[in-house]
Specification:
By secondary structure, the chain is of the alpha/beta class. It is about 40% helix and about 25% strand. It folds into two domains: about 325 residues, FAD/NAD(P)-binding domain, CATH 3.50.50; about 55 residues. The protein has 14 helices and 18 strands. Strands 1, 2, 8, 9, 10, 11, 17 and 18 form an eight-stranded mixed β-sheet that branches. The structure holds flavin-adenine dinucleotide (FAD).
Length: about 400
């Protein structure tokens, strides 16, 4: 049986990030991936500022669209607000190319990756772990489960997966007229589906259309997507596959490690329960997983309790706030309309967060600050630019901390 220092299962953003870090550190690392790349991945492909700050150089050629306009519709009332930006608010990519790029980075760093090899079970013992795949069995000191929302690693270790919502997506070619209409612009409809939203993200000659149902036991999403396309006046696609995939609803503290085992990304349930965003958290937890695996190989302590604590402090604590915001926001659609119409400062702060200049904790602090101001009308009358200047320029705390520990690693 071949032995490795670390086996990473799955080469999505979490797994490839971990493998690249391990490869660079000179660790004997193996990646096992059930698919052959490039593979289709059900995802809208929006990269937030936080995701971009974690990416290696050289990904820019993969960007299909830089978003400078967001049109938000609130249903059923029908309020529409259009937000324009001078700097891109999000970068849109196609996941098949993006994941292929990250996987190649991991190979270039020295990791061995075997595609078309599905992992069926992972066993642990005192002196290591054994991974059983469709290609054979391997021994390893550490196993990183980066195998997505259906994680076999989490299940085989009894690490209860988080409750999942559901995303349904369809990708359609755009006519030249629609390409012009969608250039630099994305459309979001809130209120339909309830507890989620519908999106249209143009990416040049094609676009991703979908619905995110961010609730446990989600209903059938197809009628919502059909109605969304109808509202956009787009023909209902015939013979085009609809792709559904779970969206783990992060923000609950649950174990993301066990003896010799670390979970990262969707496998650890690290997806934003407010937006469904997961790529940034997959990259971040992949990076942390590699750092803790390296630490364990040096110290011989394979309990990984500190990994769970660090994920809780850096990521889950942020997602806990997102979870609370989602509860309020999605349960009270009229509040959404009210904020869009009357609370521009809040909407602006939210977009600043998407761009990576704030995190949820900072946003919550801003909201609390506003609510505790005794003379609210006076504050509202202040020029908006003045409010924007109050924002610290240094960016979200967790990104600053990232850079520190990247230096360490
Ligand atoms: C419809 C939809 C839209 C989304 N849109 C966005 C978005 O716009 N922006 C954003 O940031 N996030 C989005 N997300 C979330 C995002 O896609 C995930 O959070 C992200 O892909 C998680 O990365 P990961 O590496 O943890 O897992 P994955 O990307 O799921 O990668 C897991 C990998 O493991 C492999 N694997 C699985 N099981 C096994 C096995 N047994 N053996 C070997 N290999 C295995 C898979 O083939 C896959 O390559 C969306 C999700 C959905 C469902």
């Amino acid at each position: 049986m071949t032995s490795y220092d670390c086996i990473v299962i799955g080469t999505g953003p979490a797994g490839s990030m971990a493998l690249a870090r391990l490869g660079k550190a000179g660790v004997r690392a193996l990646g096992l991936e059930k698919a052959f790349f490039p593979r289709r991945k059900t995802c809208a492909g929006a990269l937030s500022g936080a995701a971009i700050s974690l990416l290696p150089l050289g990904f820019q050629h993969l960007v299909r669209q830089k978003t400078v306009q967001v049109d938000v519709h609130c249903l059923p009332g029908g309020l529409v607000r259009s937000f324009q930006f001078t700097e891109p608010i999000a970068h849109l990519i196609d996941r098949d190319q993006f994941d292929g790029f990250l996987q190649q980075q991991a190979r270039d760093a020295g990791a061995i990756i075997r595609e078309g090899e599905r992992v069926m079970a992972v066993e642990t013992c005192l002196d290591g772990a054994i991974v059983h795949s469709s290609g054979g069995s391997y021994r390893s000191q550490v196993v990183i489960g980066a195998d997505g929302a259906h994680s076999i690693v989490a299940r085989s270790q009894g690490l209860r997966p988080p409750v999942s919502g559901l995303g349904l997506e369809v990708e359609l070619d755009l006519s030249p007229r629609l390409q012009r209409e969608f250039a630099g612009r994305i459309i979001i409809h809130y209120g339909e589906p309830p507890n989620g939203y519908s999106w249209a993200f143009g990416k040049g000659d094609h676009a991703s259309f979908g619905v995110a149902l961010l609730q446990s036991r989600p209903p059938d999403p197809r009628p919502y997507l059909e109605r969304f396309l109808k509202r956009l006046d787009l023909p209902f696609p015939q013979n085009i596959p609809w792709r559904g995939h779970p969206i783990p609803l992060g923000g609950k503290n649950h174990p993301v490690s066990a003896h010799r085992i670390i979970l990262a990304g969707d496998a650890a349930g690290l997806t934003d329960p407010f937006t469904g965003e997961g790529i940034a958290y997959a990259l971040e937890s992949g990076r942390l997983a590699a750092a803790h695996a390296l630490g364990a190989l040096q110290t011989g302590d394979f309990a990984f309790t500190e990994y769970s604590q660090e994920v809780q402090a850096r990521i889950v604590s942020q997602l806990e706030i997102a979870r609370k915001m989602a509860k309020i926001f999605y349960l009270m659609p009229s509040l959404t309309s009210y904020c869009l119409e009357h609370q521009s400062w809040l909407v602006e702060r939210y977009f600043q967060m998407v761009r990576g200049d704030l995190d949820y904790a900072m946003l919550l602090g801003e909201i609390r600050g506003h609510l505790s101001v005794p003379n609210l009308p006076e504050k509202q009358n202040q020029p908006r630019t003045r409010q924007l200047q109050d924002i610290p320029k240094a960016g979200p705390a967790y990104l600053q901390q990232n850079h520190k520990s990247q230096d360490k690693g």
